[in-house]
Amino acid sequence: MATKTARKPKTEKSYEYAWTGTDRRGKKIKGKLRAANDAIVRADLRKQGVTPIKVQKQITLSFGKPKIATGDIAVFSRQLATMMKAGVPLVQALDIVGKGHNNQSMQELILAIKAEIEGGTSLTNALRKHPLYFDDLFCNLVEAGEQAGVLETLLDRIATYKEKTESMKKKIKKALVYPASVIVVGVVVTAILLIFVVPIFAELFESFGAELPAFTQLVLNMSYFIQDYWWAILLGMAATVILLSNLWKRSPKFRELIDRAMLKAPIFGSIMHKSALARFARTTSTMFAAGVPMVEALESVSGATGSIVYGNAVKEMREDIATGQSLRLAMEQQPLFPHMVKQMVAIGEESGALDDMLSKVADFYEEEVDNAVDSLSSLMEPLIMVVLGTLVGGLVVAMYLPIFKLGAVI
């Protein structure tokens, strides 16, 4: 006899509705709700003591679904933790958070998780079905919370961890984007001058009939080259970007090479080191406080440092700890970790407060990164003036040298 396979509960599609109504005192109010149809909106409003007057479906033009960012996952974790701490059941909390989310893709994700749980799946298994958004670290912490019966506490820890990590990523991006923007602006300004301004001077110089200064001739040659071969330059730049992008995606050795170069770079290298240390300490502290065994915790930590070099070091430490070594002794074999970090770990292991010590290390390095980024921003302002001044000023001097030379002859 054939057995029927259980169907997965289908997630009902929802839409945004704008409504107008009156409250119990007869005051006219309005707002927005997301639901499957207008009948559900009217029913929800009546439950809240609102008499609906008008309910209208909102039509939005969109080109593809919005992406789910890491920040969306952090906000989801915080909202879920807050609701569960307030005593709201998990399924109801997911329903409230999901329907109230502005990002349609995030809303569908949350409601899909809710549907899985209503079908009898645990939260951990429901999250594991979406590895693109919930990594092993997230799932392991949720699993530890479910097993220990302290899910709301672990969700709160996850939310704090995600918020701290996201803040760290934004600081690193700020440190890297600023100098990159200076380079791009400098290149664009120089290209505009060479293509549109220098040719005007070139026509003037031809009427002189005299030999031009070497610097001026060099600038003119650059202008002629860009005008004649601009298409080759653009193709070369596009090919380089595509090649580097493919190498980054397909070659672990290339990624490691770039990572090592970034760590050795002046100024930026120090920020990258401190960022990796902060992530290592924060992630290890969160996992250890949740009761996850150190060997299992370091497996997730290795992928959360944001650095291939540090990730490889953590994997080597994990192998040492698996043979019976302490975390401090395993760290002694890795030159990447400063003496202060090793001493804090030693104190934490001796006092039985390793998670607190690592949390303090994370706080210290997060503040260091914050200060370093602020200092870098202050240094970049005069550097921008110097770079742009040198490029633009150099071109201006090159164009006026023949005029000065002609004036001296006259």
Summarize the structure.
This protein is mainly alpha-helical and 410 residues long.
Describe the protein.
The structure is a single chain. 72% of the residues lie in helices and 6% in strands. With 410 residues, it is mainly alpha-helical. The termini are far apart. The chain has helices at 38-47, 70-85, 90-99, 104-118, 123-128, 136-148, 151-206, 214-250, 252-264, 268-289, 294-301, 308-322, 327-332, 339-351, 354-409, and strands at residues 15-22, 28-35, 51-57. Strands 2-1-3 form a three-stranded antiparallel sheet, with helices on one face. It contains 15 helices and three strands.
Low-confidence stretches: 1-11
Give, in spatial order, the strands making up the sheet with the most strands: 2-1-3
Helix content: over 70%
Rg (CA only): 30 Å
Indicate the topology.
Blueprint: E1 15-22, E2 28-35, H1 38-47, E3 51-57, H2 70-85, H3 90-99, H4 104-118, H5 123-128, H6 136-148, H7 151-206, H8 214-250, H9 252-264, H10 268-289, H11 294-301, H12 308-322, H13 327-332, H14 339-351, H15 354-409
Antiparallel strand pairs: 1-2, 1-3
Key traits:
410 residues, mainly alpha, 3-stranded antiparallel sheet, 15 helices, 72% helix
